[in-house]
Amino acid sequence: RGTFMSATINFGRTLHIVGGLLGAFIVFVDSTIVNVALPSLSVDFHASTASLEWVINAYTLVFAAFLLSAGSLADVLGARRIFLVGIIVFSLASVACATSSSISYLNVSRLVQGLGAALVLPSSLTIMTTDVTDERLRHRLVGFYAAAGGVGLAVGPLAGGLLIHGFGWPSIFWVNVGVGLIAFAAGLWPTPVSTRSQKKIDYFGQFFATLAIASLVFALVEAPERGWSDSLVITSLPLFVVTLTLFIFVERYAHSPLLPLGLYRNAQFFGVIGLGFFFNFMFYGVLFALSLYFQNGLGYNALLAGISFLPFTGLVTAGNLVAPRVAERTHRLHVLIFGEALVAVSLLIGALAGYCDLRLLLFAALLPGGFGSGLLVPTMTSQTLVTVPIDSHGSATAGFNTFRQLGGAFGVSIFGPLVAGVADVRGGFVASLFVAAGAMAVSLIVAVCTQRPQRIYCDKLVEEQVGEGAPVTGTGSVR
């Protein structure tokens, strides 16, 4: 009977791993795959440039705004339940996208799809690691999770070009439905260990946090097109300040705050989400700059531009898979330092190659940058998990990914005008790489100052949990 129970648990864990990986994959695929569909959508719907931009921005806006709330709901209501709801919402929204009869209908569907993505992302990692007590295995699962997202980012533009060329733009959304069905079936298996928190839902905190993040992201995504003096952009910024102030006030007195109060005092946790912010600022900013440089500067078509992304994105997955094994042999801080330094040097060499118009050197320089980026994501994610107790994993993961999305929005808002807003596209591209390298240098300093190997805050919480008979996921030490 014991062998049967063990086999059943292992089978269920495997299903949850598959479901979590597929969830992370489709969430990140849809953040990049739609870019290459914009010309086809413009022809079919006779859409304006502003409407086409919202095909991308609608997803990003809602995704970033609801991540924090989604992580809290996963902790309170259970990660598997939120994961299944997220997959359903994401898949139904994908059907709506594929069958859209107008650009407005498509944009509304993308808003709903972003909500589904926000529900899926933090819960997908939690269902993969919820019953894993072996620290090495947990870190490897985080590496696989990051690799799934990296593959999604890498194949998005290329897969989009191939699907659109062969089957038309609706095919990029129909693919989500097929993947979503498999992920949903895998997530139906019950979790062997309940990780639902005793916290209550912080409705006011979720409302103000969502409104604050949404207003900030709206200003960031609209400012490059409308200008910072536009009335909507100007209105969004004070709204962000007011709602953020109200959020902080509410959280101070909330019985079950959106982020546990201990996290506010945890320098390592805030340090690592800062690393996530600077990383996405660099990564999404560079992706956007590369897209403009390849198509506007070098005159590549969408498919050729998608292929040209591979030197930067192709090795991201390799780095994702290698990072956990490297971290096992050394401290995660060392992996962070090496990865950030590798990316910074890669971008500096790429900027030099762009300035001298040496395309082969540019592509060669991007290779180590992609690998270094792959090292960073699973390492940062693992570092996030070990700084918090198990019943806050959903909130911590959501907080980490929220700051990543904010960093990406900042990156695009700054890099876009830097490249597209100048007559010399190559000069703007070179400047973007220098800015990205500077961001990684700042991130390196933050890592050294906040992520030193030491006993961390959650040790006390782990000791309390052990005393109460609660499950523990690791020793609480930082490798």
- Total strands: the figure is 0
Beta fraction: under 5%
Q: Largest sheet, if any?
A: none
- Structural category is mainly alpha
**SS field, number of helical segments:** 19
Order of helices and strands: HHHHHHHHHHHHHHHHHHH
**Shape type:** globular
- CA distance, first residue to last residue: 37 Å
Low-confidence spans? 1-9, 454-479
What helical percentage do the residues reach?
A: over 70%
Radius of gyration over C-alpha positions, nearest whole angstrom: 21 Å
Mean pLDDT: 78
Question: What can be said about this structure in brief?
Answer:
With 479 residues, the chain is mostly helical. The protein has helices at 2-29, 38-45, 49-77, 79-98, 103-129, 135-167, 171-187, 203-226, 231-253, 261-264, 267-297, 302-308, 310-313, 316-329, 332-355, 359-386, 393-420, 425-450, 458-468.
How would you describe this protein?
The chain is mainly alpha-helical and 479 residues long. Helix content is 81%, strand content 0%. It is built from 19 helices and no strands.
Features:
single chain; 479 residues; mainly alpha; 19 helices; 81% helix; globular
What's the helix and strand layout?
Elements: H1 2-29, H2 38-45, H3 49-77, H4 79-98, H5 103-129, H6 135-167, H7 171-187, H8 203-226, H9 231-253, H10 261-264, H11 267-297, H12 302-308, H13 310-313, H14 316-329, H15 332-355, H16 359-386, H17 393-420, H18 425-450, H19 458-468
